[in-house]
Design a protein that fits this description.
The protein has about 450 residues and is an all-alpha fold. Helix content is about 75%, strand content about 0%. The chain contains 20 helices and no strands. This is MFS transporter.
């Protein structure tokens, strides 16, 4: 029996998206401080992208598989997406807690690999849940509410090491040891990650498949690894045109943000603060400050998402134009980092980046969701996220190091110029998208 999807209230959408608070705690701590951990353990700046590579490589495999499995899961009590929320939450919590206790680079890289893979087990079903539960008219609104929650998580988590330092926790440590301020921050992040996902599980009900009898019939006919792999490959071959066009936008967008996550700490601590000795108080204080400045993009993305949520609930929006402008503003923010003369100016730079981040986390998914069959929403959300991990793999395998040195020169701050250029290219790539059903509410 086909169920009509009713409009949900703000708080119902908030509850079903609240787990993203914890997911973003994990991503913000990972993105803001794993490079700091790598540097503390002795990594050279040019080796940092390679140490990140296991995370996107795993995502390339995990995301479509989890999406496929969640599409084919249904239990009257546990639902379709919620079992994956819980499994991902448990594994992510463990990995996040133990990551700063790594005593060697291979251990830290392994912790990052497990953390990223585990977060992805939860994250992609969260994207699919919005499309599962909301009618077409509320999908932009739903993804924007997720972005609002993500912005809150980014800002709070990015400031945790700084807050721990202000509360008297040690922010320095011997060579090769991660400071207690970072360890405490990761422990708090692990707790928030688990409890916020559990909150969504306990407060959200899922709809059964539209035709339960047909769902069970299809599931019984398509069992086993070969069948599942073949179906995923078939879906990749038949992906909607809009997804391919958005893939170009996503490639440039996520190459830019991977560059930021990999190089923001070494680039800004050296260029803005003049600190390079990872055992010194100057470096660790500067690294805390970089984390706080990175939190600015989360805070601004929260307010930008709040504005978008209000607008999307009242009027129709041109998703393509909005995404184009937002990405170009973010690109400008990255480029301005090169030219600033005072640290406080980083707030302005990352405010512009926050506008792009809010749009990246909402508009592509809103444009895509209207072009995908509901029964394949999970697998296509997973496949779509291959366009997130592929650019990160290219970047980690030397793409960042090659491009920033080729285009701008050897100084590590030039990575921010590269990130800005790529984000502007991502914005202009929106002009490839012509389907009005995807671009307009």
């Amino acid at each position: 029996m086909k169920l009509a999807k009713r409009k949900l209230s703000f708080w119902q959408i908030w509850n079903m998206s609240f787990g993203f608070l914890g997911i973003q705690f994990g991503f913000a701590l990972q993105g803001g401080f794993m490079s700091r951990i790598f540097q503390t353990l002795g990594a050279d700046k040019d080796a940092i992208p390679f140490l990140w590579i296991a995370a996107p490589l795993t995502g390339l495999l995990v995301q479509p598989i989890v999406g496929h499995l969640s599409d084919r899961t249904w239990h009257p009590r546990f639902g379709r997406r919620k079992p994956f929320f819980f499994i991902g939450a448990v594994l992510s919590t463990i990995a996040l807690f133990f990551a700063p206790y790594s005593s060697a680079l291979w251990m830290a890289a392994g912790a990052l690999w497990i953390l990223d893979a585990s977060i992805n087990i939860s994250m992609e079903p969260f994207r699919a849940l919005v499309a599962d539960k909301l009618p077409d008219s509320q999908r932009s609104y739903g993804f924007v509410v997720q972005t609002l929650i993500i912005g809150i998580g980014t800002w709070v988590a990015s400031n945790l090491p700084w807050l721990m330092t202000q509360l008297g926790v040690s922010n320095t440590a011997p060579a090769g040891v991660v400071p207690d301020s970072v360890k405490y921050a990761f422990a708090i992040g692990a707790m928030v990650l688990f409890t916020s996902i559990l909150y969504t599980i306990l407060t959200t009900e899922e709809y059964p498949p539209e035709d339960l009898a047909e769902f069970e019939k299809e599931k019984s006919l398509k069992k086993g690894f070969r069948s599942g792999f073949g179906e995923i490959m078939k879906n990749i071959a038949e992906m909607p045109t809009v997804m391919k066009q958005l893939g170009v936008v996503q490639f440039f967008s996520w190459f830019a943000f991977f560059t930021m996550w990999s190089f923001a700490t070494p680039a800004i601590t050296a260029h803005v603060f003049g600190a390079t000795d990872t055992t010194s108080a100057a470096y660790n204080d500067a690294a805390d400050s970089v984390g706080s400045y990175l939190g600015t993009y989360g805070l601004v993305s929260m307010f930008y998402a709040l504005i978008l949520a209000f607008v999307a609930s009242k009027v129709k929006i041109n998703r393509k134009l909005l995404h184009l402008v937002s990405l170009c503003l973010g690109g400008l923010g990255f480029i301005l980092i090169y030219f600033i003369t005072e640290p406080w100016m980083l707030h302005l730079c990352f405010s512009l980046v926050g506008i792009a981040w809010a749009s990246i986390l909402s508009m592509p998914y809103a444009m895509l969701s209207g072009s995908v069959e509901p029964k394949k929403m999970g697998v296509y959300m997973g496949i779509f996220n291959m366009f997130i991990v592929l650019p990160q793999i290219v970047a980690a395998l030397g793409g960042v190091n090659f491009l920033y040195k080729l285009l701008f020169g050897e100084a590590v701050i030039n990575t921010m110029l590269l990130a800005g250029t790529l984000l502007i290219l991502a914005g202009l790539s929106n002009l490839l998208i012509t389907d009005r059903h995807a671009t307009h509410d």
